[in-house]
Amino acid sequence: MARSTFQIFFQTGAWLIIAFLVLPILVVIPISLTDTSYIGLPKEALSLQHYANYFSDGDWLGATWTSIWVGLVVASCATVLGTAFAIGCWFLSDRAAMVARWVLITPILVPPVVQALGFYRFWVVLGLIDTHFGVILAHTLLALPYVSISVFASLTNLDRNIPRAARSLGASVLQTVRAVIVPAIKPGILSGFIFAFIVSFDEIVGVLFITVRRVQTLPKMIWEGIQDNIDPTIAAVATLLVLLTLLATLFGALRRS
Amino acid sequence: MPRVTEKFSYWMLVLPALAIMVIFYIVPVLGIWKIAFTEPVTGFGNFEKMAASSAVQTSFIITFRVAAVTTVGCLLLGYIVAYAISNYASRLTPLMVALVILPFWVSVLIRSFSWIVLLGRSGIVNDALRDAGLIEAPLKLMHNEFGVVIAMIHVMLPFAVLPMLTNMRGISGAYVQAARSLGASEWYAFRNVYFPQTMPGVMSGALLVFVLSLGFYVTPALLGGGRVLMISEYITYQIQEFLNWGLGSALSVALLVATALVLLVAARFVNLRATLLDRK
């Protein structure tokens, strides 16, 4: 069947737009291989010097490590709290639970700068400025909406008779949650964990306000690097992160198919 | 009374997350309101100063203009992608979906950095155009609204595509087929039968993109180079450069109120619950 102009418009249009989405992200790859000491395309030869620089620079590695472990702690805290929250709301399913769910997603709606100001003033009072604990607490709050949304989404597919059966057979609420509900909604919990990790790993505005010198995260190093605007090491870091994302996406797609 | 203890144990699950959210998030954000009305002196002084400042007005206009243009751009581009994915099934469809979601996982910082590399004075686009002999002097592609909007559309596009995709997947092909078999042209059937059914998805996408764009900081700050001062950046300026917490907080309150108003108006056209709370 011949394709109409209409179909051709939408199909080629869609691929062009997807190219617009993906290709600009990939420019960091050639930039990272530049043999120059400024940000630009390779001039005479490809070079791995900026990767070498990243892997030998204590500041970059330290910030990377901080971002990873803070992200893991945040993801664990947010997943436990958010999962319990979503399960509780699902059981209750009344007006109050609905209000609670709206309260928990406010961090999605409040502009990042406004919440960062709020954190800063309160963290000063609590003495949490420039501490890892302060960052973990702030990031956990920012990650909670995503965990709660993703866990709740998988709960809506769960048959309410299943926990009811467990309860009528004598299981306590806690036992029902641990042995029946959590195993049934594992995919939602897992994607909540991943979301929470990414939220923390990428978060920049809050960190800019509530940390000074002692706590350095990867986004903060990248942010400062872009402001100074000379060092192609950022491109090497960005390339590593983009490749990691590509691999993870590919892995995820393969597992699903 | 078994039912009461039952309910109590459910609340014990809800409470930890809710409590830390209220204590460490809601209270600090409300604290900003207090600062706006009390620093340096109690009263409406900060809001009077804000209303009188032409710089603030300009910043609000820029913010709404950039957010509006970004939203329209995302809807147009996003609609085409969502339509192609949901209506032309092929072996490549899963790949298309994966590629739309992929940018989500790459940090906004890195995506903005990519655009700086592309659009800068001696960026890749300018270099390529000069090498091709198309331009003499470098074009001004960033540190203006053009650069900010391009990068913002890039960052926000997935937020527009996903709700539209969810919506379009639920639309039965039978209506368009019926219209076609009754003699409607492809375009007529799309315009009058398919398109109206996609409005809920379009509205959800519009709301998400617009609200997120209003408060966006990272991309405008990096691509705008201090020349496209959206409200979020204006606030950090007031606080970091001038330590003017009063005005900065008053601006924050104004931004919060603006966001709330947008949501309130949107609630008339959009199912807020489906858009924000129960999204997948």
Give me a quick take on this structure.
The complex is a heterodimer of chains A (257) and B (280). Chain A has helices at residues 5-26, 28-32, 49-56, 58-92, 95-104, 106-109, 112-126, 132-155, 161-168, 173-184, 186-202, 205-210, 218-228, 233-256. Chain A is an all-alpha fold.
Structural write-up:
- Chain A is mainly α.
- Chain A has a domain at 58-231: MetI-like (MetI-like fold), CATH 1.10.3720.
- Chain A contains 14 helices and no strands.
- Chain A has helices at 5-26, 28-32, 49-56, 58-92, 95-104, 106-109, 112-126, 132-155, 161-168, 173-184, 186-202, 205-210, 218-228, 233-256.
- The longest helix of chain A has 35 residues, at 58-92.
- In chain A, 47% of the residues are buried.
- With 280 residues, chain B is an all-alpha fold.
- Chain B has a single domain (25-106, 143-277), classed as MetI-like (MetI-like fold), CATH 1.10.3720.
- Helices cover 78% and strands 0% of the residues of chain B.
- Chain B has 14 helices and no strands.
- Chain B has helices at 2-38, 45-52, 54-87, 93-105, 108-119, 124-131, 145-169, 174-181, 186-197, 199-214, 218-224, 231-240, 245-266, 272-277.
- In chain B, helix 2 packs across helix 13, helix 3 (54-87) packs parallel to helix 7 (145-169) and helix 8 (174-181) runs antiparallel to helix 9 (186-197).
- The longest helix of chain B is centred in the first third of the chain and has 37 residues, at 2-38.
- Chain B is globular and about 70 Å long.
- The relative contact order of chain B is 0.13.
- The mean pLDDT of chain B is 91.
- Chains A and B meet through helix 1, helix 4, helix 5, helix 6 and helix 7 of A and helix 1, helix 3, helix 4, helix 5 and helix 7 of B.
- Chain B: The chain crosses the membrane at residues 12-36, 56-85, 97-118, 146-165, 201-223, 243-270.
- Chain B: It is found in: Cell membrane.
